[in-house]
Amino acid sequence: MAGSKKQKFYVVWEGGKPGIYTTWAECQKQVQGTKGAKYKSFDSKLEAQKAYNSNPSAYIFKKKPGTVIKKNIDPSIGEPIMTNSVAVDAACSGARGPMEYRGVWLQNGKQLFIQGPHEDGTNNIGEFLGIVHALAFLKQHKYHDTIVYTDSRTAMKWVRDKRLKTTLTKNPKNKIIFDLIDRAVNWLESNSYKNPILKWETKAWGEIPADFGRK
Fold first, then answer.
1. Any alpha helices (H) in 12-152, and if so which ranges?
2. 113 strand-pairing partners
3. Between the chain's N and C termini, which has fewer beta carbons within 10 Å?
4. Which candidate, 117, 95, 113, 93, places its Cα nearest to that of 104?
5. Residues annotated as binding site?
6. Using CA atoms, how far apart are residues 207 and 21, in angstroms rounded to an integer?
7. The dihedral of CA 19, 23, 26, 32: what is its sign?
8. What element of type H or E holds 4?
9. Where is the binding site for Mg(2+), in residues?
10. How far apart are alpha carbons 89 and 119 in whole angstroms?
11. Consecutive H or E run containing 155
12. Domain 85-205 has CATH 2.40.50.100
């Protein structure tokens, strides 16, 4: 049927009950709140079956803590500041789907926070929430000069404007996401911060270290 949503298959390697699931709701029950859960979505049943019978490391890319993969050396860009800085990133299954975000220290790759996955979100919203979460965390712990890196110019603009321009509409599935958006906007309107928010130059430096590695 024209315009129908494409079927996804969700592989859970490590979680409550490993297996292949045909809906995000079923997958989410196995991974949400499970430390170290490993899962990924696929576009076909054949791909999912092949992945499930393989080592998840072949599908979930992991970078060593604090490492930067440099692809192009451009003197005009320089290198990222690896000390006194954090990176945030989001992951979303498709243009609209399960969304999660997290923040890590650049120097050692240690995770500061993680949220989700939450149903029916977008990557840009996750990027926005990640930045604000980082700003709130840093202010709470008095890291007033710590840099926040993001690879999303859209999210940077939304933070500057203190509002989102998204076509996503609120519904019962994504109520949690919209609650987080309201909290983030309220925080921006009620707080000031000195932390620089800088663009992570992916073409020069590789994927941002907070990346979930599921591309």
1. 24-31, 45-52, 123-140
2. 103
3. N
4. 113
5. 89, 127, 151, 211
6. 29
7. positive
8. none
9. 89, 127, 151, 211
10. 17
11. helix 153-161
12. no
Q: 3-state SS of the chain: helix, strand, coil percent to 5? A: 30, 25, 45
Question: How far out from the chain centre does Cα 9 lie?
Answer: 20
pTM of structure: 0.69
Residue that the structure tokens 């690896």 belong to: 82
- Look-up of token digits 């690879």: 151
User: Residue 202 has which token pair?
Assistant: 């992916």
Q: For residue 121, what are the β-bridge partners?
A: 97
Average pLDDT along the chain: 85
Which of 96, 205, 107 has the alpha carbon at shortest distance from 147?
Answer: 107
**Torsions phi, psi of 67, nearest 5?**
-85, 155
Q: For domain 9-58, is the CATH number 3.30.360.10?
A: no
Q: Where are the domains of the chain?
A: 9-58, 85-205
CA–CA dist 103, 125 (Å, integer) = 15
- pLDDT tens, 55-76? 776 666 544 444 555 555 555 6
For the ranges 3-12, 30-39, 109-118, 165-174, the lowest mean pLDDT is seen at 3-12
